[in-house]
Amino acid sequence: MNENLFTFPGGTADASGDNPFDLSGFTELTGSNTQNPFADLLAGGEATEQPPAEGAGAVQADDSIPEEKDETDQNHETVEEDESHEISKSPAPQDPQPKSPPAPKSEEDHASDKPEEAEDNPLLAAMERQEEKTAPKVAEPIFAQLPVFSYNGSEAPIEDTEQTFDELRLSKLTDFPEFDEAQSLSWKVVYGKIVKEIVLPKKTKIGQIKREIETSKEFINALKKATDKHPKCLVKPSISMQKKGDASAYKGAFLYLSEAQASPKTITFIPGRDGKVYERRITGAGEFVTPAENITVLDEIRPGFHPSLPRIPYSLMEQAIGLFRTMMRKGKGRQPAEALVHFYWDKQEQRYFIRVPKQIVSGVSVDALLDDEELMTSDRYIHYADLHSHNRMPAVFSKTDDHDERATRVYMVVGRLDRYFPEITVRISNGGRFLEIAPEQVLEMPPVGHFPPEWLTQICTDAEGAFGVAA
What we know:
It is a single chain. By secondary structure, this protein is of the alpha+beta class. Among the domains are: 140-239, Roll (Ubiquitin-like (UB roll)), CATH 3.10.20.90; 251-291, no CATH class; 314-441, Cytidine Deaminase, domain 2, CATH 3.40.140.10. The chain contains 14 helices and 17 strands. α4 (107-120) crosses α5. It is elongated.
């Protein structure tokens, strides 16, 4: 079979076909030949095969430097020199060293690689630059919100952002008199995760601080990570110094005038025998004393009664009113008469009971005889309240009542007993100083009567759609 199955570049097989793999037709292509498609790979291989010039020079320099050796090591060193010459003449190809897998990086390593990653990755860097540009626009609705004054659970928007922090303090004095001393008040602004202390409240404007925080990179970055994307800009005052009776170096409160006069303070407050508090000021012109109002160095006190015992049961009040209604026809000539009962608290049995003292009554008066020594002297009982009736007259304390009811306790009067629902008035006496209080403070409310539950289904609280007709 003389037909050739292969055709080779550079020519064909000879006619005889004896040597179909004759290589004389091939041309050797080197790495420098531009027609070679593998020129880059060959060029790299040639570069790696050439020994570095510095390394070769170093080996020759080491061979040219004679060193003194011990005779015992001459033979050994000669062998090493011969081996080194052979290595320098025919350098062995360097086998590529197996690379070990990189060690896992920690979070800190990854964090440190981010700037380099952004520099190496132009797309990532461009995205970050774009995000920095668009972030203020996205946050514009947040920036449009007014700052909020926040103190002791009270919050209110601050309309005038161009006022200083001290001007805000002055505007809040009516509601918060403790703001009177500017040096005792400190301010800070809490905006998301950013907290800024105010050093100069008299010169710093609220809006200025808000804008400084909003334009800071720290605030924008914190806003990106925050779960609350609409944080409030809270303006928070706090009392950093509070003194009782010694408000400042120049102001104070004293119990006696002599103490105020001996004090170096120029503004002092002293209670008078008439129950009023007086303000005393000292200047180079003399001593000034006037009645005082809104004294911030003193505690705010409101008059009232805070019971230590439970309320009087309605059942006892029901019994007392039953007695009083009966007395409406027990006076002389079957005329209405008044009556008096005492309410006692038994500390041992933990309950109230009624004591009716011996008394001489008429239509306008009660003269009682307090003759129960045990109740009056024993520590077991507390005389809690007095209740007397005004028969068909209004439930109003008379001047006689004011004279008789000077002991410190609760006093009650019931009137209009001729009506279906009588009247009742309750007051306390504090050493002869009276204050009217709500009856439910000391009296149990009447019980709710039982009624059929279906009555409630007949009552509508919403006019729309009631009785099936639109309002």
